[in-house]
Design a protein that fits this description.
Number of helices: 10
Largest sheet: 3 strands, antiparallel
Oligomer: single chain
CATH class: Alpha Beta
Shape: globular
Helix content: 40-55%
CATH topology: Aminoglycoside 3'-phosphotransferase, Chain: A, domain 2
Number of domains: 1
Length: about 290
């Protein structure tokens, strides 16, 4: 059985498609991903459209953000469930690779090429792009030692969600959520737990929902640290590991903001592109 098939089995449980067949890897859907079996709501989805065909009917968090009804309980539930997922080694296995080298290759070398190609196709001029990547490359090189210490100490990187977005998260009830239609394939999803968790934070910041982003990230941080304590992996705030964790958080944000910038340029959404530019500039200007 492939890794993807095993992940499908672990995450979907007894979920079946509309015609009664098993969920196919090409249309992976996760039923209450990470929840204990006794608390796992049986929800069935069609493949590949993932349309709900049995109650309760969920409201997606993207819709709640748009309506201004997303709650602290929603955001805390996402954070708590993500941490459960991230520390489940059967679902979210460790990937044996050198994290600093992966970050340098993915975040700088490959990403620089992608952004340059993106703005070229859209016929957009941006003299800041090479400076962005030069500064981030310098930061990764400077922080390589503490990034490596964090990776070794926290058993990372892992194979995470990668495609985690607000429109992939359903609110089943106040304080209960489920992740849906996530495909954890490909080496692009090799990241740390916090880089994976930071996807939602970055999306909220791109939507100019800073208060919600802070609420979510504080909840993730608390759940993350609590879990580390139970595993005897707690690290002091002034340790080399803590410095590595901070560096990885910053690199992860940069990676997400540059992807958002590319997406906005491709769609010729100048407002979103400017938001991404501002977030990148602020991040780089505040590098510790």
């Amino acid at each position: 059985m492939s890794m993807l098939a095993r992940q499908n089995k672990n995450l979907t449980g007894d979920a079946i498609s509309k015609d009664g067949g098993d969920l196919a890897p090409s249309g992976i859907s996760r039923t209450g991903a990470g929840l204990p079996a006794s608390d796992n709501t049986a929800i069935r989805y069609t493949i590949p459209t993932a349309i709900l065909i049995s109650p309760p009917t969920p409201v997606f968090l993207s819709a709640k953000v748009t309506a201004g009804t997303i709650s602290k309980a929603d955001l805390e539930a996402v954070a708590d469930l993500l941490v459960q997922y991230h520390f489940n080694h059967l679902i979210c296995p460790m990937v044996f690779t050198k994290l600093a080298e992966v970050l340098q290759k993915k975040v700088v070398e490959e990403a620089r090429k992608a952004v340059v190609e993106c703005i070229s196709k859209a016929d957009v001029k941006n003299r800041l792009v090479n400076d962005w990547f030069d500064r981030m490359l310098g930061y990764i090189i400077l922080k390589t030692e503490c990034i490596t210490a964090a990776a070794i100490g926290l058993l990372e990187p892992i194979q995470g969600f990668g495609d985690l977005r607000l429109n992939n998260i359903a609110s089943l009830s106040e304080g209960r959520v489920a992740f849906l239609n996530i495909d954890p394939t490909g080496d692009d999803f090799v990241r740390t737990r916090r880089m994976d968790g930071g996807l939602i934070r970055a999306e909220l910041l791109m939507l100019r929902r800073k208060d919600d982003a802070d609420t979510y990230w504080n909840a993730y941080e608390q759940a993350y640290q609590k879990k580390l304590a139970t595993l005897n992996q707690f690290y002091p705030a002034d340790s080399v590991i803590a410095k590595g964790v901070l560096a990885i958080d910053i690199i992860g944000q940069f990676h997400q903001f540059r992807k958002a910038y590319c997406s906005a340029i491709s769609k010729r959404d100048l407002v979103a592109a400017k938001t991404a530019e501002d977030l990148i500039s602020t991040l780089l200007n505040d590098l510790p």
